[in-house]
Write a structure and sequence with these properties.
about 0% strand; two-stranded antiparallel sheet; about 475 residues; 20 helices
C-alpha cells in the first residue's frame, strides 16, 4: 500500500513504545498485522521494512492503521487506539464514524467496528458534536430502497456457532434488565467494551449463512441498546450513530421488522428528545412502510404511537388523535392474539403500560393535562417494579400534568416520589424529565409545597 507522511515526518515514538511494551519484533508485528488483516478480508503483505517505515513517520492508507492497532491490542490483551499508535494523523476521528448506511455487508462490519473502537478508545469521542436531522432521516431512506443482502456468510477467521449467537442474546437481555433497574450510567461502558472486544471478533469470524443472519440480528439488538444507553447518558450524537449501524445490521440479518423497530423506537424517539417533530413522524412512517406486512399487531401499535408523538409536538391534534386511536385498536388485536407466540422477543416489553406512557407524552405536548394525567397513572400502575427508570419518568409525566392543572401540592408529592426513584438511578433522561418538571413549577415558586420540593432537591444535590 502507498503511504502518506505524518506532519514533519517525525519518528513515531508512540508506536515504538507500544512495540516494546508488546515485546514484539518488527517482523513479528508485520506478521500479526497481515494475519489480522486477512480476518477482515484484506490481503496485506507488510514486512519488517514496512514497520521500519512506520516508525520513521510514514502512515499506511485506508484501514491499515486500525488493523495495526487491533493487532497490537491482541498482543497486549487490551484495546489499542489510533492515538496510541501515533496514527490519528491529527484528524477528528468523530467526523463521519458511524453515520453511513453502508451499501455492503463488509462495509457495514468495518463501520460498526470502527464506531465501537472509537467509542472505547477516545474519551473525547464526539465531544461537541451535534445531531443533524438529515443524519436521522437519510439512513431510513437508504433502508427503504436498499435491496436485501444476498449473502452474509464468511469463510475466514475463527468459527462462529449458535452458542456464540446465544451468548450475545443473553448478554443483551441481562444488560437490558440492569439498565431498566439502575440506568445506563452504570452500564454503558461495559456494553461498549463487550462490543469492541468480543462482538467485533465474532463479526470477523467465519459463519454459515443461517448463523450469520442470526448473528447480525443479535448484534443489531445489542447495538440498538447501546444507542439507547447513549441517550440515557446524554450523548445524542453518539446515539444516532449506534442507531444507524443497528439499522444496517438488521438489514444484513434480513429482518425488516426489527429495522422498523430501530426507526420507530430508537431514531424517532431520539428525534423527539432533540425536538424535531417532523422527523419523528417521518421516521415512524418509514418504519410502517418498510416493514409493511412483516410485523405483529404489537409492533404495529408501537409504530402508530411513535408517529402520534410527532403529530403532537407539531400541534396537530387531529392527526395525533387518529394515530393514538390506531395504536389502541391495534394493541387490542395484539392482546387478543397474545397466546399465539408470534411476537419477537424485542417487542414483548411494549405492553399497555408502555403504550399509556407514549399517549401521556402526546396529551402533554397537546396541552391536554387531564388526559395526560390519566395515561401517566395507567403507565405507572402497569410498569413492574423492576422498570425503575420508566416508573420515574411516568411519575414525572404525571406530576407535570398535575402542575398543568394547577394541582401544585399533588404535583410536588408525585415529583417527590419520582426523585426517590431517580436517586437509585444514573440516568440523564430521568434528570432531563426532572428539569422539565421543575420548569413547570416556576410560576408557582412562592407556594410552600414548591419551596419545600426545591429545598429537598438542593439537599439531595449537596448530599
Amino acid at each position: 500500500m502507498a503511504a502518506r507522511p505524518l506532519i514533519a515526518r517525525q519518528p513515531n515514538e508512540r508506536l515504538q513504545a507500544l512495540i516494546q511494551e508488546a515485546v514484539c519484533s518488527n517482523a513479528g508485528l508485520a506478521r500479526r498485522v497481515n494475519m489480522c488483516g486477512a480476518e477482515h478480508g484484506l490481503d496485506l503483505r507488510y514486512d519488517k521494512t514496512s514497520v521500519a517505515r512506520w516508525l520513521r513517520g510514514q502512515q499506511p492508507r485506508g484501514r491499515a492503521p486500525g488493523i495495526i492497532a487491533e493487532a497490537l491490542g491482541r498482543k497486549l490483551g487490551r484495546t489499542v487506539t489510533l492515538d496510541e499508535i501515533g496514527m490519528a494523523n491529527g484528524k477528528n476521528l468523530a467526523s463521519g464514524v458511524g453515520l453511513q448506511f453502508s451499501p455492503t455487508v463488509l462495509g457495514a462490519v468495518e463501520q460498526v467496528c470502527e464506531l465501537w473502537r472509537s467509542d472505547v478508545g477516545r474519551r473525547d469521542f464526539l465531544t461537541g458534536s451535534s445531531v443533524a436531522s438529515s443524519a436521522l432521516v437519510e439512513p431510513s431512506r437508504d433502508w427503504l430502497i436498499t435491496a436485501p443482502d444476498s449473502q452474509v456468510a464468511r469463510t475466514t477467521g475463527t468459527r462462529v456457532g449458535q452458542s456464540d449467537v446465544e451468548a450475545v442474546r443473553a448478554m443483551t437481555d441481562a444488560l437490558s434488565r440492569l439498565d431498566h433497574r439502575y440506568g445506563s450510567g452504570h452500564l454503558r461502558a461495559v456494553l461498549v467494551h463487550y462490543l469492541n472486544s468480543v462482538v467485533s471478533g465474532l463479526l470477523a469470524g467465519s459463519y454459515r449463512e443461517r448463523t450469520g443472519r442470526e448473528l447480525f440480528s443479535a448484534v443489531a439488538r445489542l447495538t440498538e441498546l447501546a444507542g439507547y444507553m447513549a441517550i440515557d447518558t446524554g450523548q445524542a450524537s453518539l446515539a444516532q450513530r449506534y442507531y444507524i449501524q443497528s439499522l444496517r445490521l438488521a438489514q444484513a440479518a434480513g429482518d425488516r421488522a426489527y429495522g422498523g423497530y430501530v426507526l420507530a423506537a430508537g431514531m424517532s424517539h431520539l428525534a423527539a428528545t432533540l425536538g424535531n417533530p417532523r422527523e419523528i413522524a417521518q421516521l415512524a412512517r418509514a418504519a410502517q412502510e418498510g416493514a409493511r406486512g412483516q410485523v405483529t399487531p404489537r409492533t404495529e401499535a408501537m409504530f402508530h404511537a411513535a408517529e402520534a408523538r410527532g403529530h403532537a409536538l407539531m400541534g396537530d391534534a387531529v392527526a395525533c388523535s387518529e394515530r393514538m386511536t390506531r395504536a389502541l385498536d391495534t394493541m387490542e388485536r395484539a392482546e387478543a392474539a397474545e397466546d399465539s407466540g408470534d411476537d419477537p422477543e424485542w417487542i414483548r416489553h411494549f405492553d399497555r403500560a408502555y403504550l399509556a406512557d407514549e399517549l401521556a407524552h402526546c396529551h402533554r405536548d397537546l396541552g391536554q393535562a387531564k388526559n395526560a394525567a390519566e395515561c401517566a397513572e395507567q403507565a405507572v400502575e402497569g410498569h413492574a417494579e423492576t422498570r425503575t427508570r420508566r416508573r420515574a419518568i411516568g411519575l414525572l409525566l404525571l406530576a407535570t400534568a398535575q402542575a398543568q392543572q394547577r394541582e401544585v401540592d399533588r404535583a410536588c408529592h408525585t415529583g417527590t416520589r419520582a426523585t426517590e426513584l431517580l436517586a437509585t438511578l444514573r440516568s440523564e433522561r430521568g434528570t432531563e424529565y426532572l428539569d422539565g418538571f421543575r420548569q413547570r413549577l416556576e410560576p408557582f415558586g412562592k407556594e410552600p409545597a414548591v419551596r419545600e420540593f426545591s429545598a429537598r432537591l438542593e439537599w439531595r444535590a449537596v448530599a
